[in-house]
């Protein structure tokens, strides 16, 4: 068993035994908050394979923990564009789970950096205590004047709006690497989507084996077999795309497009296989569909990823 497989097994067992654990407890017990943080700052110094393994298990459990924005995006932004002071000040806090952070990418809102003051609104952002923003070709840290939480359809992915009114900023470094941060976030999200899709397949298979109609399990009917076989193909193909996604913008765009649609399909087919019980509040199937739908917009819909991929495929770059 590889390190990433062992880590994934540990995370799955932990989330199963302690589903209500706080982020700080999760960070203390398993070390996921500092997964990408270099050892000199108190982290584990791991890479894309371990990140994907953890993200897949978090997606499988529909975990609300801020792994994506804090442990992946914020750490990546600080390592790529932050100066030594910013890294020494923030990375140990992030690695221990003592604080969380979120990253605002270009295009996420209408931000204006005027001298040392930041103004504007970010209508939708992942929740985090420290706000790092790419604005005016720089990476800055600022405290929003207003932070409003949304009552989201997908309660497992907290979102907030951020409003800045000439907020003083702390300049952390040049913002030249924001596309790399975005691609790492897409790769981690793709792994989460694989975990969610795989869990949908597990639920559908389990129901198909136990639910009986006309004297036999519904899984013995050809129509159900075909549905499950198609979803299995989607899940395994999505897993391959997600594991390759950390390599480049091209692979990230492939994963962002394919894994998003695979998750949406798996979540929808899970409900179809379950029938009426699949759309009830008591059954978790609807939660996976809601997560799949919200994930599909998080870093742009599949069409946006394909548009970014098109020049590479068509030979225009």
From TrEMBL:
Acyl-CoA dehydrogenase/oxidase C-terminal domain mapped to chain residues: 188-312
Keyword entries, A-Z: FAD, Flavoprotein, Oxidoreductase
One Pfam family per UniProt: Acyl-CoA_dh_1
E.C. code: 1.-.-.-
Coiled coil: none
Record has Zinc as a keyword: no
Listed cofactors: FAD
Keyword Flavoprotein: yes
Acyl-CoA dehydrogenase/oxidase N-terminal domain ranges (all copies): 19-97
Classification via InterPro entries: AcylCo_DH-like_C, AcylCo_DH/oxidase_C, AcylCoA_DH/ox_N, AcylCoA_DH/ox_N_sf, AcylCoA_DH/oxidase_NM_dom_sf
GO MF term (any one): oxidoreductase activity
Family: Belongs to the acyl-CoA dehydrogenase family.
Name recorded for this polypeptide: Acyl-CoA dehydrogenase family protein
Organism for this UniProt entry: Nonomuraea spiralis
